[in-house]
Each structure stands twice: as C-alpha cells, then as structure tokens.
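Morning!

As promised:
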Amino acid sequence: MAKSKNSRRGFLRGAAAAAIGAPVAMAQQAALKPEASSAVPEVTSNQRPGADFMVDVFKTLGFEYCAANPGSSFRGLQESLITYGGNKSPEWLTCCHEESSAAMAHGYFKVEGKPMMIMAHGTVGLQHASMAIYNAWCDRVPVYVVLGNILDVNYRRGNAEWVHSVQDAAAMVRDYIKWDDTPVTLQHFAESAVRAYKVAMTPPYEPVAIVADGALQEEPISEKNLRIPKLALSAPPQGEIAAVRQAAKMLVEAENPVIVAGRVARTPKGVELLVELAETLQAPVRDQRLRMNFPTRHPLAGNADLKNADVILSLETQDLWSSLNNQTGLNKFGMEFRRTANGKLIDISAVELNYKSNYQDFGHYLEPALSITGDVEATLPSLIEEIRKLLTADRKRALAERGAKIVDANRKARERDRELATLAWDASPISTARLSAELWAQIKNEDWSLVSTDNFQSAWPGRLWDFTKHYQYIGGQGGAGIGYGAPAAVGAALANRKYGRLTINIQCDGDFNYAPGVFWTAAHHRIPMLSVMHNNRAYHQERMYLQMMGNKFDRGLGNSDVGTALTDPFIDYASIAKGYGLYAEGPISDPKDLGPAIGRAIARVKAGQPALLDTVTQPR
Amino acid sequence: MRTPFVFLTFLTAAFLCSPVSAQLKPGNVDNGKRLFMFNGCYQCHGTLGQGGAAGARLAQTKLTQQGFIAFVRNPPPSNMPPYRAKIMPDQELVDVYAYVQTFPVPLNPANIPLLKP
C-alpha cells in the first residue's frame, strides 16, 4: 500500500498514543483545543483522497444513481461522491436497508436497461443485501455492487471496524454474482471497475461486485499517471447459424408449434422481434411474463396448449419443466411425475454460459432435441430470416389457416376472461379482478407502467390490460425472494420518473413488511408512484402448504393460520405510509369506494408524490 | 393418450371411491360457508368461488354432489390437496357443496363499463 506523509495510519498512531497517555479530562480538553496538543496528528490534507478517483471511474460508467444505506467502510467514497462528485451521475439515494438498495437497482434496471450502483459494508451490509442480489441473479439482472471493507488491520478503529471487516468480502455472494474483484491499488480499481461493468452487461446479465478498500478510499492519491480504461461493451452472443437453420426447419415443418417466452426482451427491440417471429410462423406465444415479452392483446398471445404441440420453442424460459410434466398432488415434493408434453423441444438461452453449481436456479434438465446457446434477442433476427427463406407460398397458406384458428381461440379466451372477472365483482374483500379493472379504467389513457408482478393477483392485469410497451411490465423477483416487491417498484418508478410515466405498483402486504422503509426513500427522493396494497392479510401460499401437509397426514386444517395470518391486529398500512411521507387512504373494503380513491391518489402521483391505497382483497 | 386415462381414473374415483351415504342430511348452506372459510377453501377458490391462479373456479360448477365429493377426495394432479374423510366427513362436504351452489352466476361484461374492451 502506498503511503503519504498525511496518512490516516499516522493519524491512528497519534490518536492511540493520546488515548493511552492522557487522562480522560485531558483528552476531552485536547479534543476541544486540538491545537494545544502535540499528540494531534495531521488530520487534514489538501490532497485528493483515493475515493475521488473512484468517483471519476464511476462517472465514466454512466451510473445515474447509487443506492445505499450509509456505512463507515465506505464513508470516504460516500463523501467523495456527494461532494467531489457533486452528488450527480451518480446521485446518492438514501436507503433504509441494503436489501432495499439492491432490489431498487433490480427494478430500475428492468425499466431503464442499465445498471444502478449500490454500496454496502462488505459484511453486515452485504448480509442484508444478499437475498436481493440472489433475486437479481435468478432474474438475470446486472446490479453493480460496491463493497466497503478495511483489509489492513492497522486501519481498523475499534470493534465496529473489526466486526465489519472481512478477508474476502464478495465470498458470501460469489455463488450468485458473475464476477468480483478486490483491487489493491487505484489503478487496479479502475481496471476492475470497468471490467465489472462490462461483465455485468454481457448476456446473460448478472450482478457483479467490486471491493473498495477503506484505506484506498481514504488515503491521499499517491499513484502516478492514473488512467481510466475506456468501456467497450461486448456484442451479445448469438446462436450458431447452422443450429439456427435447423431450428428454422423444425419450426416451419411443425404443424402445431408453440413459442414459450421467458426472458426474451432485453430491450424494446426484443418485443418487436418476438411479434415478428410469432406472426411469421403464425404460432401461439405462451408468455411466462418474466419480462414484457409480447403484447397481451396480440391475437397470437394466449395460454397455448403444450400437450398438443409437436415443436416447442423455449426462449430463455424458467422452469419450463413444470409445464411439460405433471406431478401428483400427494407427491408434490417427491419424485413422481409424468411427461405430458412430448413435442420436440428447441431451447435457445444464454444462461448456460454462466452456470454455477451450488444454487439450483437452473432447474430440471429439459432434454431438448436442439439446444442453441446464445442470447435470444440477438439470435431472433437470424432465426426469423432463416424461417422466411423456407416459407413457400403453400406453407404460408397453411400457416395462415393455423393462425386464424389460434386467433379465434385466443379471442374467445379473452372474452371468457372478461366474463370470469365479473364473478365476485361486488365482493368484499375486493376481488383481484375488480381491483385490476378499476385501476385499468383510470390508467389506460395514460403513459403507464406496472412495476409489480401480477402473479399474486391471478394475473388479472395481464388478462385485462393492454400491455404493449417494454416498460409496462417487468416480471417478478426471479428467485422468489419475498421483500423484492416494494423496493423494486421504487427503483422502477425512479427510472420511469424522467419520462413522466404513471407508475403503478400492486403491492403485496407480506412483501411490504420486510423492509417498508423504502417508501420513505420514495417520499424523500420525490419518486411518484401509486401503490395499491393487495392486503389479503396472510402469507397465503404458505398457509396452503400447511393445509397440504395437514391433509397429507390426516392431521386437520385448524392450525394453518398459525404463523401465516397477518391479523390480530390488522396492519394499518395507510397510517404507516403517511408516517413515511406518502399520501395514503384506507383500509378500503368496499369495491365501490375503490374507483374514487384511485382517482384521488393518481392526482397526487401526477403532482409528484408517492401514494398508497390500502385495499382489503381476496387472497388471489 | 394420457388425458383419457386420467379422466377415467377420475371417474372411477368419483363413482367407486366416495359413495355418498343415503343417510346424509341435505346440505346446510350456513355450515357449508363456515367450513369453506375455516378450512381455507376460499384461499385458492375465492370467497365466492371465483377461482384464481391457485384454484379452480367453483361458481357454476358442473360437478354433481357426488362428483364434487369424489373430486375433493381424489383431485387430479394439481395444487389441490386431497381431503380425506377424517379431515372433512361426507356430511361436511355436502354442506360445502350446498354453499357452492349459492355462488352467483357471471354477469354480462358488456353491461359493466369497466370491462369493456
């Protein structure tokens, strides 16, 4: 480690000598009159700290924001960022929990398409952030993690800095990040920081971590000729052309092909390409809704039957195996299953480029007939082109006839959905269909963005709303780690803010309670967003599991609310939200009250304020 | 070819495994509602049987009482756990079925402005 005469190490030596040699009163006096004590070390410098150079590096990478809960191990970096860096590009976002920081970055990326930086202690902060980083890993989202750490024992002041220090800070999350480094010089930091960004942004996108050593941050810059490498992003990997031609042949010859979309669209172009593929093939698209892949009201969008498919095109899907196989109810957690879809499987995915062993997010081996390793969005243009080359006039006519049948079936299914939405229309608790319809009525003429998954509302937004643009839906947690929803929504709303979009978050109550302080972050940073609490007052999925277990062993159902119900007392979310600085109303139990309340809340959101409506809802 | 197999298995279960005793009383709607809520049926199927991602629609079910009981005892592969007689006796399922019969019919979406396409 290079040292200067104004080093913090010198300060520590001086401070220690003063503490040992002087009585408390004298020490206090010395603190009041530092110039009177010869033990007071050189604590100021007109040189620049290393953290300033780190900020220079971050600025070249184009970060808009840095989300963090403050911490001593990166205090130098924080001070440089907000003072030397002018607190912009990146701007500091004050977070109340590191899990919020990471999940905000997760949600932000899925709207904006570029990473957000977060900071955390290499120990306790990262421990908080780790689940949210795992979600981002499973969801193929790059989060740029900067970890504070004090490696050199002589730089650690007291217990807090010992318990916050670690030999290998990124080790804790190395199983679910793509790359990390612990630079030991500023030049090393610059190179690794730029490399980390490049690695994170090469599909499959994933989180990365870079350790900012405390001494490196806080010591004056002594290295000469520092330079920042120029970032050059990699072109995404494309499927090998011979395999793509084979896939095109299989798809053109198929009588009942089905396209299953997982994480297809990395950019707005991905949505256009999937539409082009489906229309060229006149094939139905079964969207797993892990991203905004395909317009929900497109005539070819629907819940296509995989059992009758002769070719299934899997486009970076997640757990497709469960859609190709059935497990018996009694053996849900066992080994008994039966293949129900036997069409030839073509699998295109870049995820295989970045497999790791420990965490099992890769799912069952799918036994594809043809496997193409490559980024889906980058591979679709050549696949579409190869399909077009093979389409004869006769084949086009056949495909058009097939398409007409699919379109008709999907139209009927959509009509049926509207009919089913009327069931429990006036029920209290409010049905999720009614809630979705009330929201849609008031946002459909706006430039809107739904930043929560609709899985927990029986997909009613997807069934009733007209999703067309890439930012109108961002999928879910990825790793099913609950606590993602609220902070990811705030991050996504932040990305939407500069475009003037109306952000809607259907917020699950259980999820909210993990780290609700992120609503204060939204209020503090003036991030407008309407959150509608899906307040079903229980962890219903887990309650159902308890019932399943109780049934399995004939032990009854009466205890299933123990540990799963969020009652006694009911949680007053409107009061909580008001306390964090949001506009809030509720609880709302009568569906007739919902529409006017949504109108009032949207008016506040349009004025720039986050708002929450606490609606008491059906479980799903 | 597996669908007919599953269907036949289900029918067999419906008519052989769960005969409803002739001594059972007519269904009690109030008790059926109580059981529907207490036993957590509403969590997947909704308080008015509207169904959802986790459970099938029960409103306007085409199942007969006997078929309903057979279904609950031996559901086809799904998230639905089997409820054996020790957990829910036939009489209780008769009561729940009576409650299920009270669920409202779907409205005409054309008459609901919020549901116009």
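Residues 1-19 of chain B have pLDDT under 50 and may be disordered.

Hope this helps with the figure draft.
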